[in-house]
Amino acid sequence: MIRLPQAGGGVRAYEPRTEPLALGAGGALTSRTVFSAAHVVADPYADTTPDSPAAVDWDATLAFRRHLWAHGLGVAEAMDTAQRGMGLDWAGAAELIRRSAAEANAVGGRIACGVGTDQLTGPADLAEVRKAYEEQLALVEETGSQAILMASRALAAAAHGPDDYLDLYGHLLRQASEPVILHWLGPMFDPALQGYWGSADLDAATETFLDVIAAHPDKVAGIKVSLLDARREVELRRRLPEGVRCYTGDDFHYPELIAGDEQGFSHALLGIFDPLAPLAAAAVRTLDTGDVAGFREILDPTVGLSRHLFAAPTRFYKTGVVLLAWLAGHQDHFTMVGGLQSARSLPHLARAYELADGLGLFPDPLLAEARMRSLLTVHGAPR
After folding, report:
1. Which of 2, 4, 48, 124 could form an S-S bond across to 350 if both were Cys, CB 3.0 to 4.6 Å?
2. How far is Cα 215 from Cα 208, in angstroms, rounded to an integer?
3. Residue 186 CA from chain centroid, whole number
């Protein structure tokens, strides 16, 4: 038994699993395109502060990407999960993109990389926002990676209405050498993105978003929607031009959205697939055979863990993701760039461990248990 602290106070005894699920790596997924947004592994021995540039353990970071590729998933690099704007600055993100793209080329892994404006550290006008996007787009294209045009805090602050979004995105899409993925990240993930696409009214914002796509359908390979609103995503994907894919970023409703309905389905680009990679791959391989019920049987039980990790304030989900990577043996420590390992409470982390262990997610349950005990000891939890 392990005694886990509870959110309401006190502790409860939990009996950990002794055996993991038997899930091996496999080949390419065929019925859906699936990306995992991947976290970065901090260098725990670097002499840094929360305000200093991130110190990254590059070997461990790239090893984790090889783990994702081995399961047949693509890597969505330098996204929100990699702590863009929450510990990882543009210089660090640029190095991450270069290294991950080179690794992808070496092993034949699929990769798409985030293009944003986070080199802007203060107020900026629209011309400066455009220039920042152009700089990052050029770097991603130079690596041979697919570009994901991320939502920009600077653009949200500088834009005066929908026309500014139409003009700026139109310019970027015309300039892009290959079709890109457009990313709509909701304010639950980043409060600075409130009112994106020129309106706080989601219906009005949706129309502007669709206008951008309709004006350049040949330059939009897909959209990634992270609004945690399954109904809105389904309605949106049904209105997309032919050939434009919808990648769900909904970490609350992903099984039903990926499974789809008689009118279509969503592909996936999800932060929760960082810890869930083996289960996600197994589920999609089941779906590849046409077995929708089997797909749901594997993936539905994971939603409880995802909802816990992405509970408000949602932007701190990265802490739980890195905790699970440590417990699973993908890295040797529970340290994050910017000190973000402190962003969630001990009861929250304990519940994440319990839910993940219940799913059989840890390759070595005894290692996970030992590491969880060490974390409890550091926090002074009763034995």
Report:
1. 4
2. 11
3. 13
Could you give the dihedral angle defined by the CA atoms of residues 272, 278, 284 and 289, in that order, rounded to the nearest 10 degrees? -170
Peptide bond into 313 cis (omega under 30): yes
Give the closest residue to 66 by CA, choosing from 95, 9, 106, 29. Answer: 106
CA end-to-end span of the chain, whole Å?
Answer: 10
Strands 11-14 vs 2-5: parallel, antiparallel or unpaired? antiparallel
* Sheet strands (E) in the chain: 2-5, 11-14, 34-37, 74-77, 111-115, 146-149, 180-185, 220-226, 245-248, 267-270
What's the DSSP call for residue 47? -
Asked if residues 176 and 142 have their Cβ atoms less than 8 Å apart, the reply is no
Q: Is the pLDDT of residue 25 over 70?
A: no
* C-beta separation of 50 from 86 below 8 A: no
Determine the pLDDT at residue 382: 73
Residue type, 116: G
pLDDT in tens, 329-373: 999 999 999 999 999 999 999 999 999 999 999 999 999 999 999
Distance CA 149, CA 117 (A): 10
C-alpha dist (Å) from residue 290 to 32, 131, 248, 283, 287 = 12, 46, 20, 11, 5
23 pLDDT band (50/70/90 cuts)?
Answer: confident
Q: What is the pLDDT of residues 251-287, one digit of tens each?
A: 999 999 999 999 999 999 999 999 999 999 999 999 9
Tell me, what's the pLDDT at 28? 87
User: Beta strand 220-226 with 180-185: parallel, antiparallel or unpaired?
Assistant: parallel
Query: Could you give the CA distance from residue 309 to residue 307 in angstroms, rounded to a whole number?
Result: 6
